[in-house]
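Recall the central idea of this unit: under ordinary conditions, the amino acid sequence of a chain determines the structure it adopts. In this exercise we apply that idea directly, starting from the sequence alone.
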Amino acid sequence: MFVTFGIFKRSFRDVLRKMPLNVEIKATIRDYDQFRSLAENVSGQKGQIIVQEDVFFHAPNGRLKLRILQERPSQLISYSRSDQSGPKLSTFYITEIPKPEDLKKTLETSLGIKGVVKKERLLFLVGQTRIHLDRVENLGCFMELEVVLRENQTTEEGSEIANDLMKKLNVEEKDLITCAYMDLLSKTNNK
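Accordingly, the structure predicted from this sequence is:
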């Protein structure tokens, strides 16, 4: 059985399933090349380059962004995450979007655009964790860890994984940031 929500067609099972959970951290990076070298050593990979444009919309609950990707399907991402330093829980739902420009216009008309974040991301995988090394337009260089929790894992277990990787990657607590790139851009633009 399928249920249709606007332009999205989903099986009943997909609609009813629990939202995925991540434990995340984000930090500023002082030396891009040094961090890249550490991430390559920890992951055993050179990293995959992903060019992203995230269009954020005004949303009544949580955050809503349309991630426009080059050479791969775009994504509509709804997520909720507290603004705190250190590992934090993030709930999210991702839907692939075949025609992002059509959806962008629809959401812009009904919700309004909050802002746009453009970045070049270098992705490394370590077990269940995604390490992102980001160059964000008009902001600088940052890193993110996203520990994708398994169904039977607790937030504490995800935090332990994140803290362990922070040590291996030489991420210091003083470099942690609490908010999204969109929020940082808004603060920068309001100065």
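Strands lie at 2-5, 8-11, 21-28, 48-57, 63-69, 74-81, 88-97, 113-126, 129-136, 140-148.
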